[in-house]
Amino acid sequence: MRRRRQQQRAFTLIEILIVVGILALLAAVVVPKFFSSGETAKIILTKSQIGRTGNIGAAMDLYQAAMGRYPDSSENGLMALVQPPGDEEDEKKWRQGGPFIANPEGLRDPWGNLFQYAFPGERNDEDMYDLWSYGPDGEDGTEDDIANWLTDEERSELDLG
What we know:
Blueprint: H1 13-50, H2 55-67, H3 88-97, E1 116-118, E2 130-133, E3 146-147, H4 152-160
Helix pairs in contact: 2-3
């Protein structure tokens, strides 16, 4: 009884190049979609953080309830949510409810920039304060800024509906 010698079959260089080409084509289509959805997720997260029910918005309301006012932007600004004030009487009130945000990193947007805060607010009709992120580009005053106030365009859209 003789055993037949089995032939070994391997992929040719052409077959390998075709498979690599197909994978590269798929990657070129799929990878940009993952990156854009990640950016969209960061924008949604930022909007939720500065909204009234988000972590910073809720912390601002808790601070206001404990202290009787919102943090003064000319002094500590948002750091007042993390660190007690220097005044002894205010510190006593602060300690009853604070810290309102446990970690200073909670004051950063998903791009690593500190949220911006102004009290009293100049642009916000609903709140006493302005709270915003520079957005993906990290620059203030550009189209991608994310804020707790409505832009003129958003107001006009609401008026139409």
